[in-house]
Amino acid sequence: MAPVSPARAASPAAKRALSPATPRGSASTTSTTASPTCADSTSERASPTPKRVRVAAPTAAPAAATAAEVTGEAAQIYDRQIRLWGHAAQARMRSARVAVLGGSSRGLAAEAVKAMALAGVGKLVIVDPANVTPTASAANFFVAKEGGERAAEVVAAGARVLNPLVNVEARTDVDVTRVATEAEREQVRAVLASVDVAVLCDVPVPVAITINTMARQLGVKTLFAAVWGFNAVLMADLLEHTFLHESSESSADKDGDPIVTRHRITLAFPPLTEALAYSLATKLPPRQLKKSVTPTLLSFLAVIAYMREHDGRHPDLAKETDRDAVRAATAAQAKQHGVAVPEVDATALERLFRGSTLELAPVCAVAGNLLAQEVLKTVQGKQRPLSNLMIYTTAGGAGNVWNLGVVDTASVTVGE
């Protein structure tokens, strides 16, 4: 397929603005526009360079298995969505079971839960024993007090108000950030075994990798997202994922309807640890490699590598020792991907990751709704999902996507 030039994305707007986008690895980009309870979708195109994803209002839900029609009160509430993608898609959404692990006090999880609840995901399990933090209300609109309550229970209560048809469960008895012992991991496994998709919000990188490994063993798809100050990172491991892709072309008859062709496409995702070890040099020719492997990509991968070596701790780039460690990790990433080490001075690096331990409400709004959209696409199986790393920066006002080892394994035409 012909390369597609990166598409500019709008900067995060209002805190509650719904904004999803549908990209394909270092190979595709899409944009969608929809209201909080309804979503539209367009298909992707291939491109070897990182994609810029236009941030619009989020698409609504995806789901899992049944094709039973939605009837009664649900049919009235979801009428607009049903008109858009049909009873079967909405029914699959209502049968989906999604666990949101960690970060309940923060804005990222709140935004994602809000969008999934409005879209009509059948069951949401919010897992987090932490209390609401004193500053949570700055980004988490479910929080009205200054702390003390269990964050998962507060978010769950808010989600039930948004959509009483969604089964929302709060689990405060499992700490997903504690996976050092077998007993702790077994608690997390029990949660994972009860859902179809695990959404990891603002958990430490080493924890995300551990949970992803457990989820794969159970056949559970994983999405990981984190807001780092002015930036956000999303990663996906959807195991072997099949989705329906629609393309259209003009009819030979000038006044005729467009000809729509449907393809059922299967993708094979690597686990997060393999994606982070993947080299784009194995896939892209030198000219495209230089465009795709940007200083931003290398810097973020270097920070992720630093976190993996330091128990999830963010580097303090005001300290020379941490700057040197990140520079060394950047050089290692450049070697891994077969490019020259970028010249990134200390000031630029510090500016890129300033306030990385904080959260900004507009960034949470963008990232949370992008995350929710990816969950919806995953369970609905009707659009190309994120494949498989997105980095959103407010400095660039865009979400760039790279394909780190996701491969198309099958494509079958299923009708016109």
UniProtKB/TrEMBL annotation:
One MF term in the entry's GO annotations: SUMO activating enzyme activity
Protein's UniProt name: THIF-type NAD/FAD binding fold domain-containing protein
Recorded GO CC terms: cytoplasm; SUMO activating enzyme complex
Pfam families linked to this entry: ThiF (PF00899)
Region (Disordered): 1-52
A GO biological process held by the record: protein sumoylation
Gene source species: Allomyces macrogynus (strain ATCC 38327)
Domain THIF-type NAD/FAD binding fold: 78-392
Top-rank taxon, per record: Eukaryota
TM stretches of this protein: none
Compositional bias annotation for Low complexity: 1-41
